[in-house]
User: Fold this.
Amino acid sequence: MIRLRYHEHQRGVMAKMERYRLDSLFPAQRTTTPCPISGARLNIRCSVVPAESAIHQPMSLPRSSPRSLLRALVIALALIGLLTGCDEPPQPTVNLYRAVHSGDLDQIKRHLFWKTDINQPGPDGDHPLHVAVSQGRVVIARELLSHGARIDARDALGRTPLHVALANGKIQAAQLLLERGADDDLQALLLDLANAQALDRDSIELLSARGVDLNAANSKGQTPLHLAVAAANLKLAKQLISAGAKVNLADNSGKTALEIAEEQGEPTLVTLLEQYGAER
Assistant:
């Protein structure tokens, strides 16, 4: 009972404080009603708004000076500008070609935001994607691909980004391109890389894992091993043999890798081939 009376007293105090504020706005009617629990008489204040006043006399807003209104407008416009422009990067200050060459990811993202043509080749015929993968810049390559860089674009030498990545030994970049759908003829690519002496152990493993035949030959019957021996590339010849290249296959002229090595006077290659079972 004591707690109920305390709460009733609190409500009475707050009602008195509110009364002075409301009296200035609307006429009031007061009445009393018994508390349904304690039976005490409670003061109830009912504010009545005349219909004519509610309809024809809307509450007036506080008056503000023109200077205050102008200041509020300027602040509102500034806030709107901050909200709409907070995610908008500044315009790039370096051209896309240079940005990719230098690995400037910030400038590249600016170009991507402002819709720079990312499939436009540079002065040397290289596209931004070719440049990125040739340097093994996987993050940049991923950004370019996500914004529409052509995965089948060809540079001035007719090479695709995958060709360029493998030719430069950038295996992670090559894996990214394959994951994103690069559909190069991997068998032909192996022979092109072997002809250019651009294969290495990692690229051989990557291509072999995707079903490429290391013993497939070009139109002259030359396998990657023939091409490596003809170029006196001892390191590549050893890598190919270690990966499964056959040493006794003959090209269209009937020459084996061993015979090519002997003709060229490469005793180290001859020894290597004989160690792996080359026959005369």
Summary: Residues 1-47 form one domain. Residues 2-23 form the longest helix (22 residues).
